[in-house]
Design brief:
Length: 179
């Protein structure tokens, strides 16, 4: 690559900018503190609580909140691409980590939560801005007092499985017994 060819990659005409706004997470966490996990997930889905900053950064939305199951959706955009024109693998990882953790939350009382211990993803097909609406589903496999297990799926706009995941979460908080 010549110096001129390299310089052309940085022309103002190819420059993109994306502004991200979000609500401070502290007040939202305080507002959700007295809610069960399911109540908090429904409040986020319904716009009664603001979305977490990470959801705003990547631009995914909570669409389905059911006991033990969450579905997030993302309209892919080029700011999520890597240098080979595909969505970066961290996009699916963030979607799945969130969806699987939230699936656990739907079964928890107020004051209890879950944090990721491990996350294993298997990428089955590439995703791109041409993939259509991407959905990430998190499902609770086993809810435990100390550790919980989940499974997740990312599908492209045609419903094709693109990523499969499993994760283990550590249970935190003093919310009493899980439902």
């Amino acid at each position: 690559m010549t110096t001129n060819e390299s310089a052309e990659l940085f022309l103002p005409a190819t420059r993109r900018e994306r502004v991200v706004d979000w609500q401070a997470p502290g007040p939202a966490a305080k507002a959700a503190a007295g809610m069960s996990g399911m109540e908090a997930m429904c409040a986020i889905r319904d716009g009664l609580l603001p979305e977490p900053p990470m959801a705003r950064l990547i631009d995914f939305r909570l669409r389905v909140a059911e006991p033990g199951r969450i579905v997030m959706e993302l309209e892919p955009h080029e700011s999520l691409e890597n240098t080979i024109g595909l969505l970066h693998g961290a996009t699916a990882a963030a979607l799945l980590d969130t969806a699987m953790g939230c699936a656990i939350s739907t079964m928890l009382p107020a004051g209890q939560g879950a944090v990721t211990l491990d996350l294993k993803l298997t990428y089955l097909r590439p995703l791109s801005v041409r993939s259509g609406t991407i959905s990430a589903e998190g499902r609770l496999i086993k809810l435990g007092r100390q550790t919980s297990y989940t499974e997740g799926f990312v599908r492209d706009g045609a419903g094709n499985l693109a990523v499969h995941a499993t994760a283990t979460f550590s249970m935190i908080g003093e919310g009493g017994k899980a439902k």
